[in-house]
């Protein structure tokens, strides 16, 4: 009995031991599983961090791409703008090309004009207005040549040296006048033709002014006779007579410029009369003996030799008398009539003989 009890106890002890072992095994398995789960968690965490870095990298690549695209396109627009400015400026330099000027110089000058070197877009779109500001003085052109209007005298018309002069300042918008009235406003450009290496301005009217003001503020009329207020009867000898009637000085009464020619004697003349019809002075004349020799061409002073407009913006319309010369280059006699006084060169005897 004792033995049986002992055996049972031993068996129980063994069972207990085996239970403990099982428990320990279970515990170990649980620990292993836990460890495995932990490892997985760490892996998953590492994987999440990796994805975030990858995403950030991808985003950076995309952002860099967008930035590069923007920069390329904005730079391209910038270059396109500057290129078109360069092309338009180069057009103004085509005369230099004809002269055989160096292309490098042309490009240098064109770039200097556009401000291309600093990569910004400061090139003004209102180029003509900017250039107008550059001109300290009014520019007046007569048949595309520069007319100095600072003094009342017979003045020589000046060609433009587009290699030396600040020639860009002449490539501007001009307000043109023809036949005693305003014509239009247009950009004047250098002539493609050269005159002893010099140029003139093309694309503008007979008289062109750089500033926009009313150069013909009062009506200018032309009649094919001598008005009755002029009592001088000497005109009966002349075949053609034209009278320009206008209030030059703006004092409310009109003055008279009479142009007349005798086709038989070959004599023609331009004379000035005041508002009372009194003779003031002869402005210019030419006689047959001064016509071009060896030529059948007849020459009479005509209304084409006379222009009337305010060339110095003082409200008084000046007289512009074109004086022909044997060389072919005309001069212009500028005269101003104000307060009953005529200033300028009068009684000019024209000659077409060398
Ligand atoms: Ca007057
Ligand atoms: Ca004037």
Task: Provide structural commentary.
By secondary structure, the protein is an alpha+beta fold. It has three domains: 1-100; 117-209, no CATH class; 220-349, Lipocalin. The protein has four helices and 18 strands. It has helices spanning 2-91, 94-98, 103-114, 127-134, and strands at residues 140-142, 145-146, 154-156, 173-178, 181-187, 189-190, 201-202, 207-209, 220-223, 240-246, 255-262, 267-273, 279-286, 306-309, 318-323, 331-338, 341-343, 348-349. The longest helix has 90 residues, at 2-91. It binds calcium ion (2 copies). One calcium ion is lined by residues 310-312, 314, 316, 318.
What distinguishing features does this structure have?
five-stranded antiparallel sheet; alpha+beta; Lipocalin; 3 domains; binds calcium ion
| Low-confidence parts | 90-132
The rounded Rg comes to 47 Å
Indicate the proportion of strand residues: 15-25%
SSE order, one letter for each helix or strand: HHHHEEEEEEEEEEEEEEEEEE
CATH topology (level 3) name of the largest domain: Lipocalin
| Structure ligands | calcium ion
Helix content: 25-40%
Number of domains: 3
- What can be said about the biggest beta sheet? 6 strands, mixed
Instruction: Count every beta strand, where a strand is a DSSP E run of 2 or more residues.
Output: 18
Q: How many helices does DSSP assign? A: 4
Q: Which outline best applies?
A: elongated
What is the distance, rounded to the nearest whole angstrom, between the alpha carbons of the first and last residues?
A: 170 Å
Q: Which class of the largest domain in CATH terms? A: Mainly Beta
Question: Strand order, biggest sheet?
Answer: 9-10-11-12-13-18
